[in-house]
Design brief:
The protein is an alpha+beta fold. Helix content is about 65%, strand content about 10%. It has a five-stranded mixed beta sheet with strand order 1-2-3-5-4, covered by helices on one side. The longest helix has about 80 residues. The C terminus is likely disordered.
Length: about 400
Amino acid sequence: MSLRSAFTPVVTRWRTANPYALDTALAALVLFAVSLQWIFPDEGDDRLTWQGWLLGAATAVPLIWRRRSPCASAWAVSSATPAQALYHAPPPDVMYGGMVVLYTMAALARPWQRRLMLTGWVIGVVVTMRHQADKQPFEYAFHLMGLVCAYALGMLARVQRAYTTELEDRARRLERERAADTARARAEERSRIARDMHDILAHAVSLMVVQAEAGPVVVRKDPERAEATFDTIATTGREAMAQLRRILGVLTEERPEGEVARLPQPSVAALPRLVRQVQESTGLRTELRTTGEPCPLPSDTEVAAYRVVQEALTNTVKHARASRAVVELDWAEDHVTLTMTDDGRGPSAPVGGHGLIGIRERAAACGGSAETGSGPDGGFRVVVRLPVAADRQGALG
């Protein structure tokens, strides 16, 4: 165990102790030091009186209030010390109280107060000692150096305290910022999971409803096709359940503080399968067209592209009564445009819920835009424009 680690508990206990009790103990220690001449009277030739002891005690007792009233304590000690020196029965060998008050003023007082106190003590020591003929030159240096060192230690304590306070304030600010960032990230993740659950359930349930409505008719006319229809319903339900289990598994998984759950997300590469699944499940003739050169997208944009196509096709299946839908991906240098068009009833169809709102929110979250309305040949059209990866833009520039 190092010396520093051994003293750390002692220092910590000292700093956290009652300041009033510490100052009382310090005053008692100074009083003991100034009383040594009475405790060992044969060690010196100075005359001892009880008035002299009272003056010495007056340089120690005010230290009890040195942190509660530093200026009043300092002035009390500053008045008693020269009085004891001039009374000379006995004179102070070491100005213990003076060094404590200079340390205290340097550490706690305002700049003009601590500078005035230091100047007053230096002048007072010089003037007082000039009236004492038996004082040697080295004694001037001894007393002055003691006062200056005490003042310097007080300034060091002030700087250290200010530095510690700044570090604590910075740590609190960083903790608040970290908590705010974590809360914001969690809120964003909850919103994203809610959108994903809506998209998964809306899409799967829509396909299942279409198949279930067609089931009774197909059972009577084409039993084999009816069996395939019910297989499709079962497959769609199982896929939806699997995706929901993944979401719920991430939500219930224990994670370290500040870490946000992330789910495996679909991408643009999964669009052909999505289009094929819609066509096979509902009988809606669905076509995927791609123009331009595909390029990497940011992960959030990949998810947004897949989800807006999924939501647009879900709305077509649920509301448009369309027979045909076309999904177009137009890749440009700085963006990709997704256009979903059907030949259904158009904007007059009762499109409720949060589908179109979710499409606009996803596009805006990625820095893109979304437009909805009538198609050029009737029906309904959704146009979403999303930015491509920033690194590709830089390379092309």
